[in-house]
Amino acid sequence: MTATAAPEPRTDAAPTPSPKPDRRGSARTVAWVPTAVIVLGALYCLIPLVWVVVAATKDGSELFSTNTFLPGTGLADNVAELTAYREGLYWRWMANSALYAGVGGLLSALVSGLAGFALAKYDFPGRAAMFNVLLAGVLVPPVMLALPQFLMFSEAGLGDTYLSVLLPSVVSPFGIYLARVYAAAAVPDSLLEAARTEGAGELRVFWSVTLPVMLPGLVTVFLFQFVAIWNNFLLPYILLSDDGKFPVTVGLYTLLNQGASQPALYTLVITGSLLSIIPLVALFLSLQRFWRIDLLSGAVKA
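^ thats the sequence. predicted structure below, dont judge the formating
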């Protein structure tokens, strides 16, 4: 009976892997940085709004004598005094702002939709040059155009009129650019060709086929333009001299200037500022349902 030798240990076995460092903790720490920056930015934007809301609840004696962020008891009286000021002049300013921003925003969205659709889906001479000029118009600050527009409207006899504020807001280079990008991405050529095959003309193609698809993008254009016109100050301040045609921005500015000699008007200015924010918030909340992701769901069938 022979003895068998024990097997020799292998020397080529793979080394035992060392445990990897846990990076999840550091990743979670890094993830908090952008969140903290966003929270700080939100607080920076919301603190003035909170101050306006609180200050609007104070009467003239409480405004400068109580703690800044403690609410007062005079909101109803402030609204009543603001309504009674010069027989409701403030609400006329609000109506003027609604007219300028509402009509201007709708016309701007329509013009932007037509121009953007044409630039995106039609091939015509000078299209590239026109688009480059449009991009240059996006880069021009509106403040630089206020004085030339004042001179043009004065020469045309339109100074101190509603049209002098409405007409410049109809054409928005940024709105046309946004509509062009949206039409190129959201409106398929096959959908247009199918409509033309059925005998639809170009205007019918836009109104019946393209417009429903572009509606979320045009709502965005309308919101941007509405907010821009509502907050516009310099152009109506230069063009208008009749305070009955002022928008709410210029009207509150005149009240603020008078507050230097009549401190009681400060509460009216703050209350008016609070009320002027409400239409913007309500408009945003009512139109956000148009922002959908699946825009073409069911429009094109396989």
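The radius of gyration is 30 Å.
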